[in-house]
Write a structure and sequence with these properties.
- Helices cover 7% and strands 41% of the residues.
- By secondary structure, it is mostly beta strands.
- Strands 1, 2, 3, 5, 8, 9 and 11 form a seven-stranded antiparallel β-sheet that branches. A four-stranded antiparallel β-sheet has the order 4-10-6-7, with no helix packed on it.
- Strand 6 and strand 7 form a beta hairpin.
- The longest helix has 7 residues.
Length: 157
Protein backbone atom coordinates (compact mmCIF):
# COMPACT_ATOMS: atom_id res chain seq x y z
CA UNK A 1 0.00 0.00 0.00
CA UNK A 2 1.50 3.29 -1.08
CA UNK A 3 -1.08 5.77 -2.23
CA UNK A 4 0.96 8.99 -1.99
CA UNK A 5 0.06 12.42 -3.26
CA UNK A 6 -1.93 13.90 -0.39
CA UNK A 7 -5.64 14.40 0.11
CA UNK A 8 -6.15 16.58 -2.97
CA UNK A 9 -5.60 13.78 -5.48
CA UNK A 10 -8.51 12.42 -7.48
CA UNK A 11 -9.97 9.47 -5.56
CA UNK A 12 -11.62 7.88 -8.58
CA UNK A 13 -8.16 6.93 -9.87
CA UNK A 14 -6.89 5.20 -6.74
CA UNK A 15 -7.06 1.59 -5.67
CA UNK A 16 -5.42 -0.25 -2.82
CA UNK A 17 -4.03 -3.78 -2.82
CA UNK A 18 -4.09 -5.86 0.36
CA UNK A 19 -3.44 -9.51 1.15
CA UNK A 20 -6.65 -11.58 1.06
CA UNK A 21 -6.45 -12.30 4.80
CA UNK A 22 -6.79 -8.57 5.55
CA UNK A 23 -9.91 -8.39 3.37
CA UNK A 24 -11.36 -11.35 5.31
CA UNK A 25 -10.53 -9.69 8.66
CA UNK A 26 -12.38 -6.56 7.51
CA UNK A 27 -15.31 -8.67 6.27
CA UNK A 28 -15.03 -6.95 2.91
CA UNK A 29 -14.88 -8.38 -0.58
CA UNK A 30 -12.22 -6.90 -2.89
CA UNK A 31 -13.47 -5.64 -6.25
CA UNK A 32 -10.77 -7.63 -8.05
CA UNK A 33 -8.12 -10.18 -7.14
CA UNK A 34 -4.63 -10.73 -8.50
CA UNK A 35 -3.07 -13.84 -6.98
CA UNK A 36 -2.91 -13.44 -3.20
CA UNK A 37 -3.94 -9.76 -3.30
CA UNK A 38 -7.36 -8.14 -3.42
CA UNK A 39 -7.91 -4.68 -4.92
CA UNK A 40 -10.44 -2.13 -3.72
CA UNK A 41 -11.30 1.49 -4.38
CA UNK A 42 -10.11 4.24 -2.05
CA UNK A 43 -12.90 6.34 -0.48
CA UNK A 44 -10.77 8.87 1.44
CA UNK A 45 -7.10 9.75 1.91
CA UNK A 46 -5.53 11.47 4.90
CA UNK A 47 -4.05 14.90 4.22
CA UNK A 48 -0.76 13.81 5.77
CA UNK A 49 -0.09 11.20 3.08
CA UNK A 50 3.41 11.60 1.65
CA UNK A 51 4.49 12.24 -1.90
CA UNK A 52 7.60 10.10 -2.13
CA UNK A 53 10.66 11.10 -4.14
CA UNK A 54 11.20 9.25 -7.41
CA UNK A 55 14.00 6.70 -7.49
CA UNK A 56 16.32 6.84 -10.49
CA UNK A 57 19.24 4.74 -11.69
CA UNK A 58 22.08 5.20 -9.22
CA UNK A 59 20.04 7.12 -6.66
CA UNK A 60 17.55 5.72 -4.18
CA UNK A 61 16.33 8.72 -2.15
CA UNK A 62 14.47 6.58 0.39
CA UNK A 63 17.85 5.62 1.89
CA UNK A 64 18.14 9.24 3.04
CA UNK A 65 15.19 8.61 5.37
CA UNK A 66 16.79 5.74 7.31
CA UNK A 67 16.28 7.41 10.67
CA UNK A 68 14.54 5.76 13.58
CA UNK A 69 11.89 8.04 14.99
CA UNK A 70 10.21 8.49 18.29
CA UNK A 71 8.11 11.60 17.73
CA UNK A 72 4.37 11.33 18.31
CA UNK A 73 2.09 12.43 15.45
CA UNK A 74 -1.60 12.21 14.65
CA UNK A 75 -3.26 11.56 11.31
CA UNK A 76 -6.95 12.33 10.81
CA UNK A 77 -9.46 11.25 8.23
CA UNK A 78 -13.21 11.68 7.67
CA UNK A 79 -14.70 8.69 5.87
CA UNK A 80 -18.01 6.92 5.23
CA UNK A 81 -19.03 5.16 8.44
CA UNK A 82 -19.26 1.72 6.81
CA UNK A 83 -15.77 1.94 5.26
CA UNK A 84 -12.65 0.31 6.64
CA UNK A 85 -9.46 2.13 7.60
CA UNK A 86 -6.01 1.07 6.38
CA UNK A 87 -2.89 2.55 8.00
CA UNK A 88 0.43 1.80 6.32
CA UNK A 89 4.03 2.60 7.23
CA UNK A 90 5.12 3.96 3.84
CA UNK A 91 8.81 3.04 3.99
CA UNK A 92 8.56 -0.23 5.86
CA UNK A 93 11.83 -1.25 7.48
CA UNK A 94 13.55 1.93 6.25
CA UNK A 95 11.55 4.13 8.65
CA UNK A 96 9.38 2.20 11.10
CA UNK A 97 6.01 3.56 12.19
CA UNK A 98 4.40 2.42 15.44
CA UNK A 99 0.66 2.95 15.71
CA UNK A 100 -0.26 3.61 19.32
CA UNK A 101 -4.00 4.12 18.98
CA UNK A 102 -6.81 4.35 16.45
CA UNK A 103 -10.04 6.15 17.34
CA UNK A 104 -13.32 6.35 15.44
CA UNK A 105 -15.37 9.31 16.69
CA UNK A 106 -13.21 9.30 19.85
CA UNK A 107 -13.82 5.60 20.60
CA UNK A 108 -10.69 3.43 20.63
CA UNK A 109 -10.81 0.72 17.95
CA UNK A 110 -8.92 -2.55 18.10
CA UNK A 111 -6.74 -3.51 15.16
CA UNK A 112 -8.45 -6.28 13.17
CA UNK A 113 -5.36 -7.57 11.37
CA UNK A 114 -1.79 -6.58 10.63
CA UNK A 115 1.13 -7.27 8.35
CA UNK A 116 4.68 -6.04 8.92
CA UNK A 117 3.68 -2.51 7.82
CA UNK A 118 -0.13 -2.39 7.62
CA UNK A 119 -2.86 -2.20 10.26
CA UNK A 120 -6.56 -2.46 9.36
CA UNK A 121 -9.52 -1.22 11.38
CA UNK A 122 -13.28 -1.11 11.07
CA UNK A 123 -15.78 0.50 13.42
CA UNK A 124 -18.63 -2.00 13.78
CA UNK A 125 -20.97 0.44 15.54
CA UNK A 126 -20.29 3.59 13.49
CA UNK A 127 -22.51 2.70 10.52
CA UNK A 128 -25.44 2.34 12.91
CA UNK A 129 -25.03 5.83 14.40
CA UNK A 130 -23.65 8.13 11.68
CA UNK A 131 -23.07 8.58 7.95
CA UNK A 132 -19.44 9.61 8.38
CA UNK A 133 -16.83 8.85 11.00
CA UNK A 134 -13.84 10.89 12.09
CA UNK A 135 -10.75 8.70 12.46
CA UNK A 136 -7.73 9.81 14.50
CA UNK A 137 -4.55 7.69 14.44
CA UNK A 138 -1.78 8.40 16.97
CA UNK A 139 1.60 7.05 15.91
CA UNK A 140 5.36 7.34 16.45
CA UNK A 141 7.70 7.94 13.51
CA UNK A 142 10.55 10.08 12.22
CA UNK A 143 8.17 12.28 10.20
CA UNK A 144 4.40 12.73 10.09
CA UNK A 145 4.14 11.92 6.38
CA UNK A 146 5.50 8.37 6.78
CA UNK A 147 2.04 6.94 7.51
CA UNK A 148 -0.50 6.50 4.71
CA UNK A 149 -4.06 6.44 6.06
CA UNK A 150 -6.90 5.63 3.69
CA UNK A 151 -10.49 4.50 3.92
CA UNK A 152 -11.63 1.68 1.65
CA UNK A 153 -14.80 2.33 -0.30
CA UNK A 154 -17.50 0.24 1.37
CA UNK A 155 -18.30 -2.99 -0.46
CA UNK A 156 -19.60 -5.59 1.98
CA UNK A 157 -19.74 -9.37 1.55
Amino acid sequence: LQVGGGAGIALERHWVGLPQRLWRALQLEPEASIGPFGLGRVAAISASTATLPVATAGRYPLRELLLPGDTVFEAELDAPAESALVANGVLGFFAPVIIEEARADEVVQEVLATTAFVNVYRCATCAKTAETVHWRIRFRATRADLLDVIALAPVSR
